[in-house]
Design goal:
The complex is a heterodimer of chains A (99) and B (314). With 99 residues, chain A is α+β, with helices and mostly antiparallel strands. Chain A has helices spanning 35-46, 51-61, 67-84, and strands spanning 4-7, 12-16, 19-23, 30-33, 49-50, 87-88. In chain A, the strands form 2 sheets. Chain A has a 3-stranded antiparallel sheet with strand order 5-1-6. Chain B is α+β, with helices and mostly antiparallel strands. Helices cover 30% and strands 28% of the residues of chain B. Chain B has helices at 8-16, 39-45, 96-111, 140-148, 181-189, 214-218, 247-256, 261-264, 266-278, 289-301; strands spanning 20-23, 28-33, 60-66, 77-82, 91-92, 115-125, 128-133, 153-156, 159-163, 169-170, 176-179, 199-202, 205-210, 225-234, 241-244, 280-286. In chain B, strand 12 (199-202) and strand 13 (205-210) form a beta hairpin. In chain B, helix 4 runs parallel beside helix 5 and helix 7 (247-256) crosses helix 9 (266-278). The radius of gyration of chain B is 19 Å and the shape is globular. The two termini of chain B are 21 Å apart. Classes of the chains: A alpha+beta (99), B alpha+beta (314).
């Protein structure tokens, strides 16, 4: 369970061009996520994912780049999203985003 | 009867007694003032507004009175009251109209939370609304004023009031506050512009007010579908360029520039998203107003006509 992640319940997203604007459900601050962060957030719109699944999707998006570098980058982005409160680890309180 | 046709004695009496009713579109205010010198510039700034019955319901009652005691005679000051409360420190008495205008701005910004309030000028042409967000150094008021003297209907110089229910932008029609060099710029650009007396020593420097024209006043209950968001940037001697702006960046800048985005939260997020998705977003760099207006007008001509404008609900 500890390795599963989901968008925090109540998080709202809107895709504009290649980026996402995301409303934090707790602070009501809006974050602008760039294309790299979208590679992590995008899969979570479909539902909870494990770290390994997110890393796999991130690697696939980066084609021939070093897999280890990709995995570290994906994990780093995920940690940032956790710190911002946009992603939760506890599936009991996490749910699909509004959009 | 228009306010501009009211004789000064009658206006002074109204201000000192039952109050003057002003209907901005989004908000109705009752203004009371025991400051006789304010009557003439107030009449000039709101000349095209109709004189209406000061009884009945008002969203706010704003009052200006002289500070009593020795301050009445030595460097006199005036105090602004909003519904009987005093939100600011007194101002020098010779800045009465700027104090009233800033006080009314404050009232709108802090109370009109049924709308997403963007800090922006808004004008309209052929049913297409143009939102001009205010960023530092943007020249927003100057460009808004210039557009309003070239056939654009003025909705507001200060507030882009986005109705949460349908995304239409509702007029908050007030005089345009021109500051410092902008006063001369607009006087030169449009010699017939109805610019009132200058207030040389306000907290924002020199200020003068451009009165909204008759067509804008007549349309102050007519909301508009926004079609363009144009971020102005004045730069001396710059060539005029109108460049597309990524919608995600426009969203973030507008949200940061809103008065109540984080108060409204999800409702603001949805309203902003709808606004940005339905508008073409641009950044304009300019030094010459006529070229900037030509660029914006050209873009409007290429923008599809939106749905029929909708009236502001009573």
């Amino acid at each position: 369970v500890a390795s599963s992640f989901a968008l925090t319940a109540g998080t709202r997203l809107r895709r504009l061009d290649d980026e996402f604007v995301v409303l934090n459900p707790w602070s009501w601050e809006t974050h602008l996520l760039n294309a790299e962060a979208v590679l992590v957030v995008g899969p979570l719109i479909q539902g909870p994912k494990s770290l390994e699944q997110l890393q796999s999707e991130y690697r696939a998006a980066h084609g021939d780049q070093d897999p280890e570098v990709c995995d570290r980058a994906a994990e780093s982005l995920l940690l940032e999203l956790l710190e911002l409160g946009l992603v939760s680890q506890d599936l009991e309180t996490a749910a699909h985003a509004t959009r | 009867m228009r306010l501009g046709e009211l004789d000064l004695n009658s206006l002074e009496r109204s201000l000192a007694n039952q109050g003057l009713a002003l209907d901005f579109g989004l908000m109705r205010a009752r203004v009371r003032a025991h400051v006789p010198a304010m009557a003439s510039p107030l009449r000039h700034s709101y000349a095209e507004f109709p004189v209406v019955n000061p009884d009945g319901f008002f969203d706010v009652t704003a009052s200006l009175t002289f500070v009593s005691g020795v301050r009445r005679w030595v460097r006199p000051q005036v105090t602004f009251y909003l519904d009987g409360k005093e939100p600011f420190e007194p101002f020098p008495a010779d800045t009465h109209l700027p104090l009233l205008e800033w006080g009314l701005n404050w009232a709108i910004a802090s109370r009109a939370n049924g709308y997403l309030l963007l800090h922006a000028g808004v004008v309209e042409r052929e049913g297409r609304g143009v939102v001009l967000p205010a960023l530092p150094g943007s020249g927003k008021s100057t460009l808004t004023a210039a557009l309003s003297t070239r056939g654009y209907r003025l909705l507001s110089d200060e507030f882009g009031a986005v109705r949460l229910a349908d995304g239409a932008v509702v007029p908050v029609l007030r005089p345009i506050a021109l500051k410092n060099q902008s006063i001369e710029v607009i006087k030169t650009f449009s010699p017939q512009a109805a610019i009132g007396p200058e207030y040389p020593k306000t907290r924002k420097g020199r200020v003068a007010y451009l009165a909204p024209d008759a067509a804008s006043v007549a349309g102050r209950h007519q909301a508009v579908e926004p079609a363009l968001v144009v971020f102005p940037h004045y730069e001396p001697d710059a060539e005029t360029t109108l460049a597309p702006m990524p919608k995600s960046r426009a969203f973030a800048k507008l949200a940061a520039n809103s008065f109540n985005y984080e108060i409204l939260g999800p409702a603001a997020f949805e309203a902003m998203g709808r606004l940005i998705e339905q508008c073409a977003c641009y950044r304009i760099k300019y030094s010459r107003l006529d070229e900037a207006i030509e660029a914006i007008s050209g873009q409007i001509a290429r923008t599809p006509r939106p749905a029929r404008p909708q009236p502001v609900p009573a």
